Structure formats: structure tokens, C-alpha cells
Amino acid sequence: MKITLKNLGPIKEAEFELGDFIIICGRNNTGKTYITYLLYELLRKSAHGLDAAIAKSAFLRGGYNAEIYIGSDDSRLIEYKPFIVSAERTGAALFQREVDFTRSKVIDLLKETDLNPKELLGRFTADYPTPVKHNIDFVRDLPNIVNKESIFARQYPEVLRAFSDLLGGDYALNQTGGVEYIPDGNTSVSLSLAESSSTVRSLVNIGFYLRHVAQPGDLLMVDEPELNLHPENQRKVARLFALLVNHGIRVFITTHSDYLIRELNTLLLLNKPDDERLQAVMQREGYQAGELLKPEQLRVYMTAEDVTAQGSYTLKAADISAEKGIALTSFDDTIEEMNRIQDEIIWGE
Q1: Domain-located, residue 241
Q2: Are residues 211 and 225 in the same domain?
Q3: Which residues does the UniProt record annotate as the domain Endonuclease GajA/Old nuclease/RecF-like AAA (predicted)?
Q4: Which tens digits make up the pLDDT trace of 138-170?
Q5: What's the CA gap between 227 and 171, in Å, rounded?
Q6: Which of these, 7, 200, 240, 287, has the minimum number of CB atoms within 10 Å of its CB?
């Protein structure tokens, strides 16, 4: 299903297709987050039809004179059940309880005045994008969420093991509903999020989603999944996403990570079950068949300058094949430029 956007922030006009695994790459301030947030709002409200979804979109009501077109029956949008993890997820996980405490104190103070507490607080929160609000709400509701079981908790524990390997431990809630991190190999230690690394904080929403919420047909949307991750863990998160796709969870990401894209390339290139040499590589390097991808599962786009409008951007689809993987030039161009400069510094060439 193709979606066409016009006049959305820096995006003059862009077209992209929904699929099992959608990836948007590009430089900063080229419209990736605009596309992500708008798509999230449309999919959340799609049960009411496209026109109603657009009318209800807080993102569009914020002053964007955007146009949206669906290339086929817009009722298919209902098939996508989105769960978003915004780039602000680290702060949402860490400060949600402090924000709630401050709001409660403000309400108590306002009760002593003639001001309407709800109206005043609404003004403070109106500027937060819907995905950020929903990330905060998700953390706030964790005491209820942990009573549920996802498809992975019931049927596919290998996915949860892959996430624990990425995290280097597990999450738990303490008696007051706060999130704690329990490192692998030391179950007697539990750290609050304030005491934990930025990696631990950035993965909170994904971790609880996978264990307690995820169901077949979901669309997991992650803005910059590489946030706060070492290159080794960026590779692991690529393999985790591939596992999710192969277990019925659609994935949508924006990324700047060359490591992530290269790991996805590896998962494409290794998917040749009749090639004994590649099967030996898989076994030696610890790859599993459930992580491998096919070109038809992927939709990869790069933001690029729109030649018809100065200062505007569009989306350019990347070529994907089982023989060469994902063809993206932007990362390679940057790496080649750095190599050229260092060669000149060292060798005078």
C-alpha cells in the first residue's frame, strides 16, 4: 500500500510503501520524524476512515498544510496496529514519575486559586507530540501492563532471549511501580533507571512492549533505534527487528546507523539455504535461520533533496536484492570522504 505526502514540513512531496519492514534513512532535519509521527497518527485513527483520521490528527492540526493520498483502499490502514517508541523515550522513562509528582503538586496549589487546574495543565502539555505523550503514558501504565502476556511470552521465548542479550539483563517493577534493571549474572542487584546506563533507559518501552503487549499484526515504530547503543548492540537490534518481522510483527524505523543497515545486509546475503559455504559462515558467526530476511520483506528509503524546490526533500527508494543487499550511497559517501581526508593527512595523497 503506497502513501503519498505533500507539503509536510521539509518534505515537498514523497511516496513510500508500507510493508513488513520499512526503513527511512537520511541526514538530520530532512523530514524523517515528520513522516513517522504523521503515519503513527493516521494508523491510530484509521478505523474512522482516512478523512476522519486526517481531521483528528493533532500533528496536522498543528499548522501543517499537508496533503495525504493513499494508493489503494484506505480501509487497509486498519490492518496496522501501531506502537511507537520516540527518540525522546529515554527522558520519558526516566522522568515520568517526577513529572506526575510535579503535576500533582501544581494541581494542589491551583485548588487554592480561581484558575481551572485541568485547563492550565493542558496548556503546558499541548506542545508535546502525540508519540511522546503516549510513551509517557505507557511508562505510567506499566503496573497494569505487566499483568498481560505478549505472543513472545506465550509462544516465542527466543525473541525475549534476544532482547535480554541486547539489554544485558532484564527489567522488573518494584513495589512502588518503578522500573528497575537487573543485570545478567547478578540477580541480587537491581538498579533504578537513574542508576542505569542510557542504553537501559532507551530500551524500556521496547522491552515491556515485547514481553507484555506485542501481538501478530502490530507495527512497531522506532525513531532512531541506535540511540545510545554501542555498534555491537546496533547490530543486535537489527537482528532483533528481523526476528520480529519473521514472527509477524511489522517494523518501521528511522535511522542514521550504518552498522544497522550493514547488519541487515548480512541477513539478506546469508539467506541462501543451499549455499554450504554461507551455511558454515552462519554457524560460525552465530546467526539463526529465524533472523534471515528476504528482499520482498523490506522497503528502504533515503531522504534526498527535491530538485524541484530548493531547501525541500523527498524520498528515494533504495534498490534491494538478495545478491547485493540494500544499496544506500549516503553512508558510503560519508565513510569514503573520511577515508580520503585521513589518507591525505597520513600519506599526503
Answers
A1: yes
A2: no
A3: 2-46, 99-261
A4: 998 999 999 999 999 999 999 999 999 999 999
A5: 19
A6: 7
